[in-house]
Specification:
single chain, 54 residues, mainly alpha, 81% helix
Amino acid sequence: MPVIHEFAAHPAATEVLAVNAHDQGPGALLRTVLLVLLVGVPLTAWLLLRGYRK
């Protein structure tokens, strides 16, 4: 099991933590919702319209 103190002492660890600390807000959630909509709406439309062909 890695020791947390060794990770925290690494200079790049503070940069990673700083980037994550500033990445708060609706950005990730908004991207996820848009991705689900862009994939889900055409897929749902295709499934529904496929049944009406018969």
